[in-house]
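Pentatricopeptide repeat-containing protein
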Amino acid sequence: MANKDSLRITHLKQPAIIRSDSKYKINPSKENNGCMIDLLCRSGRLREAENMIKSMPYKRDDVVWSTLLRASREQGDVECGITAAEEIL
């Protein structure tokens, strides 16, 4: 069962948080994307996190894949874990 903190973040609207905002000329950094991936993973939204990793405009490093791997282990998602492990190796 998810803890209270992860229940709160399940209502995040991912695209609104990480999109480029042309009005204010703010572009999300690699770190912003990494934080969002971590939040998605912690809330059990592994497929969304994986899709976000694959669509990042930055070089995908081991940090984001290991975040997904950790969450896959915690959530018991073997298929997602295998994908993350293959990307790390």
